[in-house]
Structure formats: structure tokens, C-alpha cells
Amino acid sequence: MQKYHKQMQEFLLANPWMSEFQDQLSYLIFEECSSNTERDLVFHFLRSGKFMSQQAYNSAIGELVREAEAMVNRYSQDIIVVATSIDSDPDSSNELIYAIKIGLGRSCLQQRIKPINSLNSLKDAIKKSGIKKCLWIDEFIGTGTSIIGRHKEIMTRFAQAKITDVDVKVKVILSTEEGLAKVKAAGINVESLHSIRKAIADSFGPSAMEYKVLDGMCSQFATEYGNEQLSVLGWGDSEAVYGRERGNVPNNVLPILWWGLYKNGNPRPFVLSRFIG
Q1: What is the pLDDT of residues 80-131, one digit of tens each?
Q2: Can you give the residue ranges of every domain in the chain?
Q3: Alpha-carbon gap, residue 70 to 57, rounded angstroms
Q4: Torsion of CA 272, 40, 32, 240, to 10 degrees
Q5: What is the pTM of this model?
Q6: Cβ atoms of residues 257 and 248 within 8 Å
Q7: CATH fold of 54-196
């Protein structure tokens, strides 16, 4: 067990903010894992995933602000920066748009950049302002289907309202490689500051025995948790491993890291936080 204690300390040294969850991590590795094969798989997830500190998140917000400023300079036009939330329900893009608004308060271009809270407000904002250069921002792209669907819906609304020549760029902090490729293939101008690969398929192959190992580890979990249905590989089989300090992990992340309920009804200590409505 000594090597696993060492590996855990190395992980916590590289990600000091995760020390808050050291007890939960220890439980996963030394209590829940029943074999070294399972422990090796957990440490593979920890090494290959993306764990973002608040400082790194703040730096990414700064990059999004600079992207907005660059678009103003590139086009010599005012722009709209919009959260990719489709409505007023709180999500990570709403948090981002507020943080960007604070960042823009220190920008000499702030009068030329209009932040708005949701895609539902975009049509009216364009009609009112005449601004047609848009930067859509979000924290995370998983499978890519959500942003593709929202882009299609909003562009349809524009067409119905006879709004033409709208230029949309999507920029996110993190994306799965697969999801990013899917969004690009749909013809959407999209960039991601960081990307992650599939935790098992891209390291061990699509038929790897690690899938059976993970399935066995999750066999003790309840199949429902709040309004979530258990998907051992994460939503859309994304196989994502991502956590952010003070953040809410997307359901694309492997449930081994955030699922909070055993099938016997007992609560399960979880490493990463996800709000379950």
C-alpha cells in the first residue's frame, strides 16, 4: 500500500486544493477499491484528468476577456459576449459571464463589449443593438451535442426574425477532444483553452479490460441518484475526468468520482462535487 500512499501525496502536492477532499480520496482508494488493479485504474484517472485550481480558472477567465478584446480589435466593431445557457437556469456559463463582466471592468474596451446572460436573450439584444459579432462562452463541452443543438436553434430563430450575417464564435475553458471535433464538424467556429481525452479508450483501447474493472467498481452504486441515471462512463460515454476548485462537475465526468449513493441506500463519500437536483 505504500506506493499508493505515495502516489496520493504526489497528486495532492500537484493539486493542493484537492487536500480538502483527502479523506474522501483515501476512502475511494483504500476502502472502496478491493484490489490493486482497481487502485491502479483510479490513479490512472487522477494522472490523466484535468484538475483546475481557482487560480488556473481565473487565468482562463482572463483568456476569455482577452478573446473578446481581440474580436473588437479584429473586426473594428462592438461585440456581444453571451453565456451558452439557453434560459435563466443557473449553470457554469452564467458564472463565467459574471466573472467576465468583472474582468471587462478593467478593460479600456468595456464600452464596446456587451455581456448577456443567456442565448434566449441574444435575438433581442442583436435587434436592439445591431451588433452581429458574438462570442459564446462556456466552461465545458462534453459530447458536443448541447452546443450543436443550441447553435442550430438560435440560428433558426435568427432566420425566422430575418436577422442575417450573424457571426458566432464559441470559446470554452475545457472540452473533450471528441466533443470539440464533433462541434467543429458541425461547421461551428469553436476553440477550447484546454482539452481532455477519454479516460480509458484513448489510453487502453476501446475493448480494454479496464472497462470491466470500472463496471465492477460501480456495481455497488444506486442506479439513480437524485435526478441522475447512473452511466458508468459519464453522460454520452464521455469518459471525462475533470474537477475544478469550487466548481460543479458536469455529468460527463466518471461517476466513480462524484456519485453519492450506494444501492443499499447509504450515502457514499464522493471526491468531486456535483449538484443533484
Answers
A1: 999 999 876 778 898 999 999 999 999 999 999 999 999 999 999 999 999 9
A2: 2-49+200-257, 54-196
A3: 20
A4: 30
A5: 0.95
A6: no
A7: Rossmann fold (3.40.50)
